[in-house]
From TrEMBL:
Gene3D superfamilies named among the record's database cross-references: Fe,Mn superoxide dismutase (SOD) domain, Iron/manganese superoxide dismutase, C-terminal domain
InterPro entries the record matches: Fe/Mn_Superoxide_Dismutase (IPR050265), Mn/Fe_SOD (IPR001189), Mn/Fe_SOD_BS (IPR019833), Mn/Fe_SOD_C (IPR019832), Mn/Fe_SOD_N (IPR019831), Mn/Fe_SOD_N_sf (IPR036324), SOD_C_sf (IPR036314)
Family: Belongs to the iron/manganese superoxide dismutase family.
Enzyme class: oxidoreductase
All residue ranges annotated as the Manganese/iron superoxide dismutase C-terminal domain in the record: 99-199
Gene from which this protein is expressed: sodF1
Record's function text: Destroys radicals which are normally produced within the cells and which are toxic to biological systems.
Keywords per UniProt: Metal-binding, Oxidoreductase
EC number(s) recorded for this UniProt protein: 1.15.1.1
Catalysis performed (reactions): 2 superoxide + 2 H(+) = H2O2 + O2
Protein name: Superoxide dismutase
Annotated ranges, domain Manganese/iron superoxide dismutase N-terminal: 4-84
């Protein structure tokens, strides 16, 4: 039972120019994201087979593969919607329905500028491949920044990603070469705050998802 499918991009390949060129978006979505979807489905099939045969010799590798590909699929599915070429960037504003998000960022990080500096640094200083992520942490009800290794490492259980910056070389190298910091700084110009605010509101509604004592 194959479960995961590649979502359509919410815009055309050139929609995020000049911050991200069309060639990057096309390859990133049609090849890289597609590979994570296929990898997650293939791994689930291999686990089905392992159960059927009682053949568990590859179990460690299969679980590593499942976490990698599934997390890659989840993060990229959020990533495309976190960006817009239509009045993106700036800060979350109450006038755009993002007032609660703006307040949560200030409460959690002291100021928008402090948050922006932390997420920029977290994304730009990933070692190897990774992501900078703004996540809702349901146990405390606050927002946190995570520096994710690959797609799945260095993550607190239960946190919900609401704004993700892909810092893998495939996200920028064709345009920015080795200047990862320049790419991350440019990313702020296409952030879709209305989408981030929608994700924040949805995550907050599931506050008790962990069923742990506060
Ligand atoms: Fe990516």
């Amino acid at each position: 039972m194959a479960i995961y499918t590649l979502p359509e991009l919410p815009y055309d390949y050139a929609a995020l120019e000049p911050v991200i060129n069309p060639q990057i978006i096309e390859l990133h979505h049609d090849k890289h994201h597609a590979a994570y979807v296929k990898g997650a489905n293939d791994t689930l099939e291999q686990l089905d087979e392992a159960r059927d045969k009682g053949a568990w010799g590859a179990i460690n590798g299969l679980h590593k593969s499942l976490a990698f590909h599934l997390s890659g699929h989840v993060l990229h599915s959020i990533y495309w919607h976190n960006m817009t070429g239509d009045n993106g960037g700036g800060e979350p504003l109450a006038a755009d329905g993002a007032g609660d998000l703006a307040d949560a960022i200030t409460e959690s990080f002291g100021s928008f500028a402090g948050f922006k500096a932390q997420l920029t640094k977290a994304a730009a200083t990933t070692q190897g491949s990774g992501w900078g992520v703004l996540a809702y942490e349901p146990l405390s009800g606050r927002l946190i920044v995570e520096q994710v290794y690959d797609h799945q490492g260095n993550v607190g259980q239960g946190s919900v990603p609401i704004l993700v910056f892909d810092a893998w070389e495939h996200a920028f190298y064709l345009q920015y070469k080795n200047q990862k910091v320049d790419f991350i700084e440019a990313m702020w110009r296409v952030v879709n705050w209305q989408d981030v605010a929608r994700r924040y509101a949805a995550a907050k509604e599931r506050d008790d998802v962990l069923l742990l004592a506060p």
